[in-house]
Known about the structure:
This protein has helices at residues 2-19, 24-33, 44-52, 71-79, 170-185, 208-217, 292-300, 313-331, 349-367, 371-400, 409-417, 440-452, 458-461, 470-480, 493-501; strands at residues 56-63, 85-89, 107-112, 121-126, 131-133, 144-152, 155-163, 190-196, 220-221, 239-243, 249-255, 265-273, 281-285, 334-338, 430-432, 435-437. By secondary structure, the chain is α+β, with helices and mostly antiparallel strands.
Amino acid sequence: MEDEDVNNNIDETESNTDENEHTVGDDREDIHETDHEDSVDSFSELRNVRKKNPCNTLISYLNINSLKNKFFEVADILYDKVPDILFLSKTKLDDTFTQGLFSVPGYRVFRNDRNIHGGGILCYVKSTLPARRRQDLEFSAPFESLVLDLVINDRKWAIIGVYRPPSVSDDIFNTLFVKHLDKITTMFDHFMIVGDLNYNLLDQQKGKPLLDLCDVFDLTNVIKSETCFTKIGKPSLVDVLLSNQPQYLFSPINFDCGLSDYHNLIGILVKGKTPFLAKEKVQYRSFKNFNESDFNQDVNFIPFHVAYVFDDPDDVYWAHETLLKDVVDDHIPVKERRNKTNKPAFMNCEPRRAIYKKRMLRKSYFTCKSSKNWEKYRKQRNFVTRLKRHSLRVYFFERCHGGPKSKDFWPTIKPFVSKKGSKDDPTINLNEENTIVSEQKQVCDIFNEYFINVAKDIESSNDNDFDDHSSILKIQDHNNQPTEPFDFKPVLSENVLKDISKLQTKRLQG
């Protein structure tokens, strides 16, 4: 197994060298609007599972072996809101890679980095899911893990994404892994382990430590076929999805998406409806049928004089506003549209087709390992890399051509230079009396009800007398000190005009 990890790093180095409303329709609309033809989509299997089961929670995992060069492909399915939870291991990142580099609208990002030379795990969680990271339950080194506390259909789940380096001995695995898992089982009745544990479950001898663990904790692996295909050696089952509640899991996923050097993408659906992401609606005025002369004519006939029947200036203003607004609404009506999240321009069809062809040639090589098939795959792999680099180069040139004065310059550059570039979704989920509240209007009402009544009974419920408190005494002493009486000083209009003339209209005044 140690050799396999080394081969992964070598293969990546060689590759870099060679390459020089809450309805189902609301949340899944992006999938259908941006639907790709199966003939050019490397994630067609994952999309098909999502289309058939739009309401269930889709959890997936991939040993990606360096995310920085493959985020282009990963973002493709995230922008379409396909997986609810996506774990990526061996991300090979450190703190020099800001969160904004890997942020995707509608998802929260959790990271547990090692360094740029190996390891690391990252997780995308859809912002509508009532989930939180549990760092207190994460496995200690040498394991790399992320633990999520998640509620699905009123059932509390612990979703554990974990990577075990091949260098970890069986004794350490049996000691530390069992210790951490014991702690989790005392707090959760439902839990799931997804990741690469580097134990081949197709070989009884090599997979014995993990098989023994499954017997102790009554775990079932729902992935039954090979997940790892190396250049040398037989295919193995090292990427696993274990759970003590397999009756709630269905439709296991296991396919080669072409992103990892050797590993398949695996996934599972969990029974239970997940909260849907309501599309944001934007109001705008439509100028489609606007006629300037007709509009000016109607404005001239507005009887503004009737507003002065009111004595109160506020009522006069309201009358003026209402009369003008009626005319404006007739000529420039207010309409609504859904705020669609657009993918970056470099994520277009041309690179996607090339990536899919690379995946097919890779499959051909592993079906028939010949030098001819390998050479076809290698050339297509290098072509994909050149194409991605060209697309990114054109994208940045078009958005940053005008320099810092361009309106697109800083939004494009900021994620690369600042940790504030991340745009985590502000969606708030509440657990009210064991019921998950995801509707943001209901969340606002709950917060409003709480804060307007937070001090309602503070006087009646407080029996302590703070008359002698040190803070109260200091306030009293300060107020009792003699101070000059407050008085307005007369100001001449000439002085006001003089100060106004000194204002620089082209500069923001503080």
